[in-house]
């Protein structure tokens, strides 16, 4: 009965809304009177919106003929207009007329848009994406929207189970710089040690920023270290926070996976619930605002251990970790005069996760049957606190625009281990431990000045600036029982029980460290429109680090409009990436499994006595040379094409070396003295070359009374290990130092190609999205030294949306509709102990979801 009442209520609401609607038509043009194709027109405070067609015209059914409309398009200033009749005409001004207007990453000119940038830039409208797709966090949203971006959830990878590593153009997670509102975002304190993605790298945790707080994401697919500093070898991701006012948005989302591979009869698992609210208020009459977001997400475990395998299972629990994530974010601007504004943004994220470690079966030497008669599955827990705060002042000084800011960020990661034991304590062992952790903090003071000379040729823009950045890293020990062996002194080695908490032994006091460094950077960045068709640009940046010295990098670029519909562009740049403080200072003794057997492994910090004795030099910066040449074309008024080929050469990449055993003829005696079975290190051990192509083809078609947007986007990428550098006592042992298995992990940062074909149809209140994503094959090497070829896979996503009222929209659908999985392998020899490693599209199968969004 209640269901019938609800259905009748929704039908009445929909009929009532339709009865009150009025047909509103209009045209959107630019300052030259040309139609703006694809401009977004939204009735303020509602989910009711549309986009302009090939002639710049639109039709929108509104509640009244005096509706308030918000008109926006990248490269233009957003306008709000009130419809005074059934026909509306709007002229959009270029986004260069006011302080703090739209600025696209990759250029410091405020009159530059994605279409006339000399570098390839993707702009992703998060409002459009989140309304129609099943992904809820930023990493997964980008994984299926941007072909050059790759991120997979991992399992059995310790900390990487809780912080998803991500990469751009097939390079490392730490070779992409992340900005928020154009300011450097701090990295995670975590170093990825396992898994096929991000091995040996640090990276930025994109998922600390809720999607509900984001207006758009800009991806610069080009080397930009000369413009933005360290880490921008592969490109830059700029997250632009919302600044809407007088609009309340509330969303609830729920989804779950088809549980095909479980021991039990459960049909669904991995339930994912998300709820968020966003609201903004205006301040004063000069465009001030405060926009706030609250977000909560809870994701349950998936279970994929029950995969048919002739070799049995390595783990009883295998799948996604359980995560609870709460975030609060703020974006604000406070005008203090007509030419000055104080701005502030940032937020706080708290994440609690638990993931399954490798199973200790009942007869395992590291089990205590009195505690776990059937064996046990240790659970690695995480408590992650991430916070950031940026405060700045933008003002004008004559013809110059100044920006002074201070940016502080902190990421703290604390490990715990539950459902475990310390075997050396026997039956009296606790079953949970605090295992220690690490923290990374960053503070950046920056000053920039920008000026545009409109009378120099066809326009000359110059920007100069300086930054002073300080970083702090600390690693702190766990409680004593998480790492200590309590066997009595004199116990023979053959009778000595395993020390520390099983699944994740705690960090020891000898691992603990506090380190810091600072760097000073200065840059000049200029763009000159030689003619209306020809743009040239250059950037030069100097940085000095307190721990390894100085670096000077440059970038030159150009863009030439061959015709009104065809443009050539190209860039060449040098770049660098400073080794993270975590890579320099991380030290740990941990448990690895080889063919299901536990082995103690020492990961020695770079400047330790062990690495010095072996002759491994101090870490230094990675350096790069990259080139990009591209073509952009608008074929007619509704079809656009961009082709961008790129080449990236990186020398002295910081990698995690192969593991050296205690019977090694050169360093085995040193390892035996440390009572460890294997050891590995961070070193500038590899040089790589990447050759690739990005393709984006988009088309807009009026279909009946609706609009069909079609997009074909692809990334083709080939990474080659060009050279392996050894040093010290390990010189000449390239295959031992950084062998084929470790090289395969670097190459598997992304599939050789990823192709995305999307059809997005909107007609009145109804919308549909159909998306195909093809992931090329990925090759890894297992513990037996055998090649694993993960065959290519194509996933299909389908979603349907309907505006129940002008304020309420419902979306339902499925990701990976046909339940595709990666190729299966022997769990005894994979990196994760499951039937596959974290490659391609993920390993959970079909996902069903529903979303309800209210906008007022």
UniProtKB/TrEMBL annotation:
<comment type="similarity">
    <text>Belongs to the TonB-dependent receptor family.</text>
</comment>
<protein>
    <submittedName>
        <fullName>Iron complex outermembrane recepter protein</fullName>
    </submittedName>
</protein>
<keyword id="KW-1134">Transmembrane beta strand</keyword>
<keyword id="KW-0813">Transport</keyword>
<dbReference type="InterPro" id="IPR036942">
    <property type="entry name" value="Beta-barrel_TonB_sf"/>
</dbReference>
<dbReference type="GO" id="GO:0009279">
    <property type="term" value="C:cell outer membrane"/>
</dbReference>
<keyword id="KW-0472">Membrane</keyword>
<feature type="domain" description="TonB-dependent receptor-like beta-barrel">
    <location>
        <begin position="347"/>
        <end position="817"/>
    </location>
</feature>
<dbReference type="Pfam" id="PF13715">
    <property type="entry name" value="CarbopepD_reg_2"/>
</dbReference>
<keyword id="KW-0732">Signal</keyword>
<dbReference type="InterPro" id="IPR039426">
    <property type="entry name" value="TonB-dep_rcpt-like"/>
</dbReference>
<feature type="signal peptide">
    <location>
        <begin position="1"/>
        <end position="19"/>
    </location>
</feature>
<keyword id="KW-0812">Transmembrane</keyword>
<dbReference type="InterPro" id="IPR008969">
    <property type="entry name" value="CarboxyPept-like_regulatory"/>
</dbReference>
<feature type="domain" description="TonB-dependent receptor plug">
    <location>
        <begin position="115"/>
        <end position="236"/>
    </location>
</feature>
<dbReference type="InterPro" id="IPR012910">
    <property type="entry name" value="Plug_dom"/>
</dbReference>
<dbReference type="InterPro" id="IPR000531">
    <property type="entry name" value="Beta-barrel_TonB"/>
</dbReference>
<keyword id="KW-0798">TonB box</keyword>
<dbReference type="Pfam" id="PF00593">
    <property type="entry name" value="TonB_dep_Rec_b-barrel"/>
</dbReference>
<dbReference type="InterPro" id="IPR037066">
    <property type="entry name" value="Plug_dom_sf"/>
</dbReference>
<keyword id="KW-0998">Cell outer membrane</keyword>
<dbReference type="Pfam" id="PF07715">
    <property type="entry name" value="Plug"/>
</dbReference>
């Amino acid at each position: 009965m209640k269901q019938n009442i609800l259905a009748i209520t929704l039908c009445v609401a929909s009929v009532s809304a339709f009865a009150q609607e009025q047909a509103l038509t209009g045209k959107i043009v630019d300052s030259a009177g040309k139609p703006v194709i694809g401009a977004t027109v939204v009735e303020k405070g509602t989910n009711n919106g549309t986009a302009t067609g090939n002639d710049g015209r639109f039709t929108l059914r509104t509640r009244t003929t005096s509706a308030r409309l918000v008109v926006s398009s990248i490269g233009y200033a957003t306008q709000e207009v009130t419809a005074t009749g059934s026909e509306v005409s709007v002229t959009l001004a270029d986004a260069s007329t006011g302080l703090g207007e739209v600025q696209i990453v990759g250029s410091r000119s405020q009159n530059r848009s994605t279409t006339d940038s000399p570098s390839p830039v993707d702009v992703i409208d998060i409002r459009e994406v989140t309304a129609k797709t099943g992904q809820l966090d930023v990493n997964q949203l980008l994984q299926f929207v941007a072909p050059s971006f790759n991120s997979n959830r991992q399992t059995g990878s310790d900390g990487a189970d809780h912080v998803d590593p991500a990469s751009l153009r097939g390079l490392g997670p730490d070779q992409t710089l992340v900005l928020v509102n154009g300011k450097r975002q701090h990295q995670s304190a975590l170093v990825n040690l396992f898994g096929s993605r991000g091995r040996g790298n640090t990276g930025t945790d994109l998922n600390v920023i809720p999607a509900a707080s984001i207006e758009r994401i800009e991806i610069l697919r080009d080397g930009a270290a000369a413009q933005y500093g360290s880490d921008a070898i592969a490109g830059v991701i700029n997250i632009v926070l919302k600044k809407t006012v007088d609009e309340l948005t509330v969303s609830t989302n729920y989804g779950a996976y088809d549980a095909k591979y479980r021991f039990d009869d459960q049909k669904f698992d991995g339930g994912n619930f998300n709820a968020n609210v966003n609201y903004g208020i205006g301040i004063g009459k000069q465009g001030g605002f405060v926009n706030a977001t609250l977000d909560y997400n809870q994701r349950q475990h998936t279970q994929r251990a029950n995969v048919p395998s002739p070799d049995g299972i390595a783990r009883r629990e295998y799948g996604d970790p359980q995560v609870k994530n709460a975030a609060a974010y703020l974006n604000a601007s406070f005008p203090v005069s007509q030419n000055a504004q104080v701005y502030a943004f940032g937020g706080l994220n708290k994440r609690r996760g638990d993931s399954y470690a490798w199973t200790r079966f009942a007869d395992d030497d590291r089990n205590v049957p009195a505690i776990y008669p059937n064996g046990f599955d240790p659970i690695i827990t995480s408590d992650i606190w991430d916070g950031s705060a940026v405060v700045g002042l933008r003002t004008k000084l004559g013809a110059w625009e100044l920006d002074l800011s201070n940016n502080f960020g902190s990421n703290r990661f604390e490990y715990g281990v539950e459902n475990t034991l310390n075997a050396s304590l026997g039956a009296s062992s606790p079953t949970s431990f605090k295992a220690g952790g690490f923290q990374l903090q960053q503070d950046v003071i920056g000053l920039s000045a920008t000026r545009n000379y409109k009378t120099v040729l066809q326009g000359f823009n110059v920007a100069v600036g300086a930054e002073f950045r300080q970083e702090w890293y600390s690693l702190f020990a766990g409680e004593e029982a998480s790492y200590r062996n309590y066997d009595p002194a004199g116990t023979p080695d053959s009778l000595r029980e395993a020390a520390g908490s099983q699944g994740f032994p705690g960090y020891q006091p000898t691992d603990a460290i506090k380190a810091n460094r600072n760097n000073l950077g200065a840059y000049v960045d200029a763009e000159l429109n030689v003619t209306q068709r020809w743009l040239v640009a250059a950037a030069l940046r100097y940085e000095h680090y307190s721990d390894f010295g100085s670096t000077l990098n440059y970038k030159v670029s150009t863009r030439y409009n061959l015709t009104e519909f065809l443009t050539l562009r190209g860039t060449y740049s040098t770049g660098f990436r400073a080794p993270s403080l975590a890579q320099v200072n991380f030290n740990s003794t941990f448990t690895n499994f080889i063919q299901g057997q536990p082995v103690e492994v020492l990961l020695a910090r770079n400047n330790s006595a062990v690495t010095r004795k072996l002759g491994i030099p101090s870490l230094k910066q990675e350096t790069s040379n990259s080139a990009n040449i591209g073509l952009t074309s608008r074929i007619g008024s509704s079809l656009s094409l961009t082709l961008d080929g790129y080449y990236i050469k990186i020398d002295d990449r910081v990698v995690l070396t192969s593991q050296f055993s205690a019977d090694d003829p050169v360093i085995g005696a040193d390892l035996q003295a440390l009572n460890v079975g294997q050891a590995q290190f961070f070193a500038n051990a590899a040089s790589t070359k990447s050759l690739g192509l990005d393709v984006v083809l988009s088309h807009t078609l009026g279909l009946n009374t609706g609009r069909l947007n079609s997009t074909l986007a692809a990334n083709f990428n080939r990474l080659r290990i060009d050279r392996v550098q050894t040093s010290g006592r390990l010189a000449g042992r390239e295959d031992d130092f950084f062998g084929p298995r470790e090289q395969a992990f670097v190459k598997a940062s992304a599939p050789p190609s990823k192709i995305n074909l999307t059809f997005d149809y909107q007609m009145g209140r109804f919308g549909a999205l159909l998306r195909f994503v093809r992931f090329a094959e990925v090759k890894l090497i297992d513990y037996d030294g055998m090649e694993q070829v993960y065959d290519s896979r194509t996933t299909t996503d389908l979603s349907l949306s309907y505006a129940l009222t002008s304020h309420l929209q419902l979306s339902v659908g499925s990701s990976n509709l046909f339940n595709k999985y990666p190729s299966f392998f022997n769990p005894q020899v994979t990196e994760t102990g499951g039937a596959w490693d974290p490659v391609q599209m993920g390993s959970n199968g079909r996902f069903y979801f529903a979303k309800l969004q209210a906008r007022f």
